[in-house]
Structures are given as structure tokens and as C-alpha cells.
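re: that complex we talked abt at group meeting.

here r the seqs, copy pasted straight from the sheet so there may be weird spacing, ignore it
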Amino acid sequence: MAAAFPDTPVSLLACIEERRGGMPYQNAWTTFFDLYHAPLRLVVLTAFNRYNWHQVPEEIVEETIADVVVSFFKADFSYDRDAGKFRNYLRQLAAWRVRDKLAKLPKIRADRLESLDGTDPDATDPGNLPDKSLEEVEQAAYQAALLSTMLEDVRNRVSPQTFLMFEMTKILDQSPDNVAEQFKVKRNVVDNAAYRVLSKLKELASQPEYQREYFE
Amino acid sequence: MKSAWDHIFSLDAGQPLTIEEQEQALRELAEAVSGVNKLQASPEHDRIARLIREKLAQRTNIDEHHE
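got the structure back, here u go
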């Protein structure tokens, strides 16, 4: 019976963590990258910043993000939730991959460090964000990724119709009356769909694994 | 300023939300998800996904070669 009905992972993170028995490998990395692209970019830029490289060429940023995802899913797949937050694990992976990248590109780095005057049109300037520190931007991006992860989690906990009605009205901003007409249901069914999804999200927000990841 | 989701994550599971808090939470959620979706649709996302695919394929080939 257990084999016929395997345990449902609590979240995407759990699903990725238990990838051997979780979602197919290809889906796992694409879903992970789809949801965590923004925080990955920011942890990579922060790691370059720590080496005093503030304007990293876009090509190097993108290669390093790819290296972080690959190392997460292949050789270094070693996240242990008991050892700490997932976001800290990502930061550590980013620090290692940035160090590797700098070791491979000593000449480029030296050249770039000499021209920190902001004139490189291909460079990524993480500091060009008004009124917010890189850490604050990273925190916001991580929280957005986490909310999106929770929403993916909820997708499997309500009926496809409920989720679609929620998505159409609250994410895609379509008129609830039009959505009700398309689904041939009463308007209150559409309104209830949004609050059912919100209620599930609220339940997830009270779970320890999301609690500890949400706050810095 | 504290967001609606900061508030929700600070609540006990059974504590209710006001209508205003629900609406604010849904607006903030839509903003967060739209940002994630927008990045997913960017050329940068496609370029990095292609790099990841290539690097994973290389690693798989190396692993298979060593086995």
C-alpha cells in the first residue's frame, strides 16, 4: 500500500531534498531554478561583492548562477535541514562557486578591479538599487521565492479548478465575474476559491520549515 | 514597514485575518509571483537554463565515464 501511495513531500524544498523519491530530476532542477532565480542571482552578486568585485560582467554572473544550481543538484548535493537554513546553504554554495570562478579568471578579475569606475556597459551593478541595500533586496527576493514555493505547494492541495480560479483572478487580475462565467459557476464560488488558497497558504506559513526560512 | 506576509508568518495557525489583511496579502502575493514569473520569461533565464542543462549533461557524462 505504501508503495502505491508514496508519501507526499511537504514542500518543494522537501521534494528537492528527497529527489531520489520525489519529483523527476529534470522537473526538480527546472522548478527550483524557475522559483529561485532572483535570490540565486543576488547571493552570487553578494559573494562577488565580498571579493570587492562590484561590477561583474553579466556573462560571468550567469555562468556562476548555473554553477551554483549544478553543484546543488550534482556533486555537492548535501543540504541538511537540521544543519541550518536553506538560504544559508545557498549562500555557502554561491561563495564556493564564486571563489572557484575567481580562481579560474585571475586575469579578468584583475582587469576588472582596475576599472571600477562604472564604465563597463556589460557589468552588473547590484548597488544600483535606490534606497535599499543588497541584503534587503536579497531578503525580499528570497521571500518572494518562498511565497511562490508555497503557492506551488498549495497547487497540489486544492482542486485544479479552485487553483485556476484563484490564479486567474488574483495573479492574472482577471474579472471574477468573467471567470465565473467561463467556469459556469456562481460568483461566490470564484471568491471562495481565492480565500481557500489563502487559507492553505496561511496554514503552510505556520509550519516550522517555512517559518524559519521566511525570517532572516 | 511590516508586510502582510510578515504579519501572517508571525501569527499562530488559528488566528484569523481581517478582510483588509486578506486583501493586502493577496496583493502582495500577486506582486511576488508576478516578479518570479517575469524573470522566468526573460532571455537571461533561458540562457542560464541552457547553461545548467549543458553542465548537468557534462557532469552526467563524466560520472558515467568514471563508473
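couple things i noticed - The interface with chain B takes residues 29-30, 33-35, 37-38, 58, 62-63, 65-67, 69-70, 73-75, 143-145, 147-148, 151, 170-171, 173, 194-195, 198, 201-203, 205-206, 210-211, 214-215 of chain A (CB under 8 Å). Residues 159-216 of chain A form one domain.
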